[in-house]
UniProtKB/TrEMBL annotation, chains A, B:
Domain Right handed beta helix: 436-597
Organism superkingdom: Bacteria
Statement: the UniProt record of this protein carries the keyword Cytoplasm: no
Species the sequence originates in: Coraliomargarita sinensis
Reaction equation(s) it catalyzes: Hydrolysis of terminal, non-reducing alpha-D-galactose residues in alpha-D-galactosides, including galactose oligosaccharides, galactomannans and galactolipids; Hydrolysis of terminal, non-reducing branched (1->3)-alpha-D-galactosidic residues, producing free D-galactose
Domain GLAA-B beta-barrel: 150-255, 364-430
Protein name (Swiss-Prot/TrEMBL): Uncharacterized protein
Single GO MF descriptor: alpha-galactosidase activity
Classification lineage: Bacteria, Pseudomonadati, Verrucomicrobiota, Opitutia, Puniceicoccales
Keywords assigned: Glycosidase, Hydrolase, Repeat, Signal
């Protein structure tokens, strides 16, 4: 690849004029290893910046530069001349993907956006950091010209249908009686036997948002199973009757059509270490915001997942803000804003593979069961596997891998150095015992308005969660892990949760407490399983309208809840049938739980002023800190 | 790979019992390089044969066998333990595909099915022959448990809808008001944010077939643009009202739902030579039957593309029966039956790439424009390119490739050894001047009842088409080629068409003559372009009901039509507005056309008896030679 690149290096500079590059570009574009992207040909006129990035990265690969700097302005990126790679990205959808910034095999590289906005067009991944070390990306905004999701304002809801109004932001057609979301360009190619290549925006789910509160609508439920479309008719231009009965939405809500796939995450980090992301507004992408797998030492500072200014969209990105799979070293998220994305703010976990056949005492077949983990291989010669009982998630020992044969993205044949313990049976699971061990710091972040939960903690390393503000419709903090459906390896060892504000969480349907264990331990094994350990919760403020418990936990060894404060609010209606109980803690040991100190509004204000956390006023969301938003239009 | 395979060789024998293999299998399974697949563990009990094939191929790779033999019976193949590869397959759809028989890197290998039936389940390619030489496959039938297309019997047609009846062969659901074709297994997984992994059978087009005549319905038109589904409701169990207006179908027709993608061709042959396929019934696959690219010396004998016996389906396979792209050496199709497939019987052509940017006198960018040619790279260092004028397809010289950089599956940067001629401009096209040169023999084949045309001839080698019987709804023989839409390089040099029977062709909408030029030469250049050369048509019998010409041709240098016979029939109604004219030949030179000799039915019967061709009686198709069909159920 490198040789070819050198041979036809000049052809990288598509669109910038051959002569000018040869005469002046090579000198003026860089200064002590810094490439000025404008000098290299990047323009703010809407033209394609992708080939310029490729040219710059070729310079970097030749060792002629270590830093790319963009002057302020808007730069556009198209897929047509982007490199592509088949990528298996955990918890997103695999595929052959075009990549605008293909940062592969990089060492010690910085991209400074200089406050620029990067606008992506169509089916393209903004950033891939693969097999790289010490990569810094900073100071820019990311958006897409046409979001991967769509939004319609709810005009009416009946038992038989919902009427919606769509703005030009979300072009659509009714095709053969089916609602189809399209690109801004209407497809004009001939109709033939051949797949058209038209870019469409398929949806698979619906969820109502409240545009006043800028969050998921109170107790709104997901509607799934729409992957094959839904019947609809156009009432008038821009107004559509969607023939779905009993939808969970009210007039005035914004109904969000969730994309059928998570094909285009914002930042894919794989098999890399030393990644620093800072000062980035991530307004949109078609998958998770930052997804890191098999990587180490990942630092996110001042990352703002938020819709673009202007009020044209209620959703920011279409899945989790961040997600970390089999990561080691250190993970930090500091001073970040994660709001209005279509799923959790973060989830830090490992991978379980299911044992599907045992062929010999030291030979067996495993399967990556979760469709979005398929291909995310983690078993290599030399890997130390933990062997886990499926129903209880309890460990039954370790085994060292001797050899591996990958049959396909799901199935792998494994040979271990020693025989497996006899109590390991088909249906049990394995994980890499030494991955998913990152120490984690989540500090001074604001998480609000997104679908589902706040943070899912599953790393086996030390985790500190401090000074954050949560305003999540589900649990703010969830301890997950299971080898039955999600196949996410978790089971924490050392977690400190302190100085946070839990600000009227649980206004939606995704959880049964503010801080919750949801690990997939079958009920009859919860009394003996101690999957999560050493969770210390101290000096947090809980503002609650909800009758749900503050804590709902089981199978924990070591739980401390001390020096916390509680403020009652009336932020939302209280479901009448719920029974209030502050703590639901079962099948656990070494538990120390103190009732929280009740505080008044005034006391709370003093407290939070001293602490520096933001308290969110759900009913006055238009007053929220606009400094966190970055102008794009 | 080989090392890993050896290390865990034993794990291949999943499902056959470890001990028996170690003790007896290694000896009894083979005899002088022949593997008895039953001895190796293949069973006719519905269990998965895929791992057994993988075990056998591992033996072959180790040089321990050259032949696999199946005892008679039915063998089933599932995708779950099949190897997979990302494949770019010309004129089909690219993707990561599971493969039941992954014949890669093979030399001198034979698979003898012994009359067995191979039944495939779900998303799997039956055969891949890649980077292999001298591979013979013979004596078996191929079918799928659930076809990739679906069929409904037409009950009623109105201006607003069509009512259809579906058998259990084609399971469906009405989901959210949309007609969806499903697997036999109903999906039962949980509804979540994750793509389900459910296997569905999406459709994108409709075409009516006549179940009495076992062919496309008289003058039926394709309905395209259904890729996003169509609104429908269930009238009663198995009866569906499809809300599509003005469909081209009549009550009693079978409406075929064409698959949205060509993902699962029957036999993919790529970068291989010396491939012999014989005695194969190809009842179904989800793409082309045999697609060969960048390969040489391909021999098809007694290949029968035909629906399974039993009358449960009218369609055989979902695209062209065979297709050859950039092939060299020799292509033979002898004693084959190609019937009721969803597209042409064959198409033999090269590939054009479009010049999209000229960066320097010897550097330019090209694009593979046709979405189903993307990734089918044909330009390498050393390739001799022909340089073609886009509108006229006339050649403007040659250029030798010095280096290539592939940007992505569509775009490639090319550097040539010498500067391009000055008259080459953006929009012109290139092709490999030395590919698509196979000599072709198509002898004693029967082509009937399929959608569209018979054979599309575009090889630059010598082609002999003799003793075949065509009963095609469009042109029986078409000379295509264009660099505007299909980007198929053609332009024949030497074609002999003799001793064939053209039996009431043109009963559909896909052509304007029995033998036709349809090359994409813009009209103002037809007077000077001589894209096709030396076509000799002699001693053929044309049985015609149609007022369309026998020949419709332009831009030909060298056309001879002598010693042919014509019989008038009343096989179909004659569209009234058509004007009859035997020959429409324009902008051509060196043309010798003699009127055919008129023959009576009696004279024709004597002729065809002597010659041995079958004449097809469209209205008595139930009498057709059932020896050509192979019992499956």
């Amino acid at each position: 690849m490198d040789t070819i690149m050198k041979q036809i290096r000049i052809s990288f500079v598509v669109g910038i004029g051959l002569a000018s590059f040869l005469i002046s570009g090579a000198l003026s574009a860089r200064d002590a290893g810094v490439i000025n992207m404008a000098a290299l040909g990047a323009k703010t006129d809407g033209s394609d910046t992708t080939p310029i990035v490729r040219a710059a990265l070729a310079e970097v690969r030749r060792g002629e530069a270590t830093k790319l700097v963009f002057p302020p302005g808007r730069y556009d990126f198209y897929s047509v001349r982007a490199n592509e790679e088949y990528l298996f990205v955990s918890n997103n959808d695999a595929g052959l993907k075009r990549i605008a910034f293909p940062l592969q095999g990089m060492e010690d590289v910085t991209i400074d956006g200089g406050g620029a906005t990067f606008v992506f067009h169509g089916e393209i991944v903004p950033f891939l950091i693969g097999d790289s070390n010490d990569v810094s990306l900073k100071n820019f905004s990311v958006d897409f010209i046409r979001p991967f999701h769509s939004e319609g304002r709810v005009l009416a809801v009946t038992e038989d249908y919902v009427d919606l109004a769509f703005t030009e932001e979300f072009p659509y057609e009714i095709r053969n009686g089916v609602l189809v979301f399209t690109s801004h360009q209407r497809y004009s190619g001939p109709a033939t036997t051949v797949s058209s290549g038209e870019v469409l925006y398929p949806y698979s789910s619906l969820l109502a948002f409240d545009p006043e509160k800028q969050e998921t609508a109170y107790m709104a439920k997901d509607r799934y199973g729409l992957g094959e479309g839904a019947a609809a008719e156009e009432i008038s231009d821009g107004r559509v009757r969607l023939k779905l009965p009993n939808l969970s939405a009210d007039p005035g809500n914004i109904l969000v059509f969730g994309p059928a796939k998570r094909n285009y995450p914002g930042f894919i980090i794989t098999d890399s270490s030393g990644v620093h992301l800072s000062g980035i507004n991530l307004h949109h992408c078609g998958g998770m915001g930052v997804i890191a797998q098999r990587s180490a030492d990942l630092f996110l500072k001042n990352i703002r997942v938020t819709p673009p200014a202007g009020g044209k969209r209620i959703l920011s990105i279409t899945a989790d803000a961040t997600h970390f799979v089999n990561c080691t070293g250190r993970i930090e998220m500091v001073d970040c804003l994660f709001e209005q994305q279509k799923d959790d703010a973060t989830n830090i976990h490992g991978l379980y593979a299911k044992i599907t056949r045992i062929l010999a005492p030291n030979r067996f077949e495993v399967r990556l069961v979760h469709p979005q983990q398929a291909g995310v291989d983690f078993i290599k010669s030399g890997t130390r596997l933990e062997l886990n009982d499926g129903p209880s998630l309890q460990r039954h020992g370790f085994a060292r891998v001797k050899s591996v044969e990958r049959i396909n993205k799901e199935m792998t044949l494994v040979e271990t150095e020693a025989p497996l313990p006899e109590d390991i049976v088909v249906g049990d699971s394995i994980a890499d015992a030494d991955a998913n061990t990152a120490d984690v710091l989540i500090r001074n972040c604001v998480i609000r308005g997104n679908r589902a939960r706040g943070i899912l903690l599953g790393s086996r390393g030390k985790m500190v969660i401090e000074g954050n503000t949560f305003h999540t419709p589900g649990a703010a903090i969830l301890f997950e892990g299971d080898s039955r459906y999600w196949f996410e390896q978790a089971g924490v060892r050392d977690v400190v949760i302190r100085d946070n504000t839990f600000d009227n969480c649980n206004y939606g349907v995704w959880g049964n407490a503010c801080i919750q264990v949801g690990s997939g331990i079958e009920k009859e094994f919860r009394s003996t399983s101690r999957y999560n350990r050493n969770i210390r919760i101290e000096n947090n403020l809980f503002r609650v309208f909800s009758p749900l418990p503050l804590l709902s936990m089981y199978s924990v060894d070591g739980l401390t809840f001390v020096d916390n404060q509680l403020e009652r609010t009336e932020a939302y209606p209280v479901p009448e049938e719920k029974e209030e109980k502050l703590f639901v803690i079962t099948n656990s040991e070494n538990v120390k739980v103190e009732d929280p100190r009740m505080v008044s509004k005034r006391q709370r204000k003093e407290m939070t002023a001293n602490r520096g956390n933001t308290v969110i006023h759900p009913k006055a969301v238009n007053l929220k800190d606009n400094r966190l938003r970055h102008a794009f239009h």
